[in-house]
């Protein structure tokens, strides 16, 4: 993942926990090293992975989602199911699963359980960003981070706010959220263009999803802007190199170019999209347009596990021609860059993300 650097054959890494102190040809690195040495055998090592979208506080809902029947059905189920958040032992198990499968950092979206999520990440030695999710129509809503969340952050776990979605949150509020993210030196995350109902709502104002929102999350005088969610996000000034657009499954012609021109990162969550039944993001078209991609598991309310390699497998199963490098970058250097973390996503001295082992069945990623 280091631009211009070739893969190292027979390397050695010197580690203190997840911190990489040295990396290079084994002959050089081991010559001056006195300490325990683990020989990992014939494996391929890549940087510790970055899961660019999760909701760890929903981890207690693993295996409970109804069969895929579209976004409205799933959202209706979640609304009733997500009254509680995951207890500490479930959170710890979820984070341990992510860590055991190579994840070094998580960009997490949290409601009430943000402090518990931050603690769980730190206790497992993971880093990342915990985002307090903002939703609603009160443009003047306080965007202050809860003191408990600020207190729980540290050790490479930082905190900020993020927007829920265009349809649920007032434009003025989303602009303020983005400004707050900038003040925190953090990216601005937003669920965007996840399902067909969202496209229908923004282009025509009609449909099942519009009916579901009417009088609840949408004000009575709301008018459809007559353009796609991505075009609307751009028109509202919400896209840019600091933006993390999550899902982007439903694009109008030209939307991939809008995302590419803005410099936004698109986070794909293929298994979540399949579990909810909202379609398949056109990853090859996004990549061809020059959109920077990231990969996320989303929550266990719409996924079976937090193994980011399984996300890569799903992405490749849907798009066998997607270049391996594009997929690896989506799991490492791209989300690291979005986070402004030079110490993640690369196997270099000073990295705090450690390494992950490339599963043998994913060797094609190196092609
Ligand atoms: Zn999400």
TrEMBL record:
InterPro entries: Amidohydro-rel, Metal-dep_hydrolase_composite, Metal_Hydrolase, MTA/SAH_deaminase. Residues 44-351 form the Amidohydrolase-related domain. Pfam families: Amidohydro_1 (PF01979). One of its GO terms (molecular function) is hydrolase activity, acting on carbon-nitrogen (but not peptide) bonds. This is Amidohydrolase. The lineage of its organism: Bacteria, Pseudomonadati, Thermodesulfobacteriota, Desulfovibrionia, Desulfovibrionales. Keywords: Hydrolase. The keyword Acetylation does not apply.
